[in-house]
Write a structure and sequence with these properties.
alpha/beta; Rossmann fold; seven-stranded parallel sheet; 7 strands; globular; binds nicotinamide-adenine-dinucleotide; NAD(P)-bd_dom_sf; Glucose 1-dehydrogenase; oxidoreductase; SDR_fam; EC 1.1.1.47
Amino acid sequence: MRGLDGTVALISGASSGIGRATATRFAEEGASVVVADIDAEGGEETISRIANDGGEATFVETDVTDQDDVASAVETAVDAYGGLDVAFNNAGIEGEQVGFGDQSNDNWERVVGINLSGVFYAMREEIPAMLESGGGGSIVNTASIAGILGFPNLSPYVASKHGVVGLTRSAAVEFAADGIRVNAVLPGVIDTPMVQRSGEADPESTEQTVAAIPADRLGEPEEIASTVAWLGSDDAAYVTGQPITVDGGYSVQ
Ligand code: NAD
């Protein structure tokens, strides 16, 4: 089978940005999509856009730091659509941008809790559901170029995204023989509400950021969605454990 037609996908952080673009792309390719996010209004908006385009999606209000919520989201995929083929663990926050010594415990715990523990809790529920189906599956975790590079004033974020790369590699090795592939997508700077927020706070910072990107522009959420769609499909059947950068060349200069 090629593409995502007939598959069941769970996508977290799909009320906005990269997650919404990916949910839309998956539905366009014929997947049934469970949209999981803490933001109910945005989640309803995502599923209504998908329904208007003739796609199939269900929203489940989910805080990825809550293990019961994560279990319910996986259960919804199984109950509503009969199983789980692809999971995109994408919910994340940037947290406060302050120097190392000024980072509060609260910020550390929030950022690591959502970006790293959230991915761990999700995989721990998703993998048994995929094993149960017997048909394998594909998990894609959202890391970042901050998963392979250091950035000032973002230490909890950078640590959490490095952790996502490590979790991805470990699970990939552990479940490869079961037909479950686990990869990470590492976006560069993508034009989503997350980046727009910091651009509004400091317009010069966006100009400086763009100047540092060889492609000379921000990425579009749809450009991450197309990579996740490929990783989710059998076209990437022999790709596992990989951190895939989608960054306009940022990380290779
Ligand atoms: P975004 O702010 O547009 O979307 C993030 C989504 O995550 C939101 O819908 C939000 O409600 C949801 N979310 C936050 N906390 C949650 C929680 N506890 N439980 C469930 N959902 C929660 O941002 P985005 O740019 O689309 O970011 C998506 C992912 O991409 C994040 O993991 C982010 O770190 C990563 N990323 C983004 C960029 C970028 O430049 N935009 C670059 C690298 C990595």
